[in-house]
Amino acid sequence: MLFDVSWMNRAECQKVDPELFFPIGSGRLTPVQVSEARAVCGRCPVRQDCLRYALETGQGHGVWGGIDEDERRVMRSGARRSFEAARQGHGRPAR
Question: What is residue 95's predicted lDDT score, i.e. its pLDDT?
């Protein structure tokens, strides 16, 4: 599947060190890094495109659209549970 990534050229993160979003070595983002990355994302005109891309492509590391890997994991598992509930009829309104 191909994704339109032309939005990346307009991303605020293009103007800062990528290690802020994707640390080399330690493997995990520190709370300070997450906070600083979110500040960049907060002023980004393509934040929603970025988050959508991360969720659709299963990006497991870094901050995308102001959301860190743990938050995206929760979002994906919540979406999976909602989908499964709807498939089993639990998502239908009562009559």
Answer: 45
Per residue in 20-56, pLDDT (tens digit) is: 998 887 677 889 999 999 999 999 999 999 999 999 9
Res. 78 pLDDT band, cuts 50 70 90: confident
Cβ–Cβ < 8 Å for 13, 21: yes
C-beta separation of 55 from 75 below 8 A: yes
Q: In sequence order, what are the residues at sequence separation of 6 or more whose Cβ sits closer than 8 angstroms to the Cβ of residue 22?
A: 61, 62
d(CA 6, CA 80): 28
* DSSP letters for 36-50: HHHHHHHT-TTHHHH
**CB count, 10 Å around CB of 6?**
9
- Distance, in Å, from the CA atom of 90 to the CA atom of 25, rounded to the nearest integer, reads 44
CA–CA gap between residue 64 and residue 51 (Å, rounded) = 5
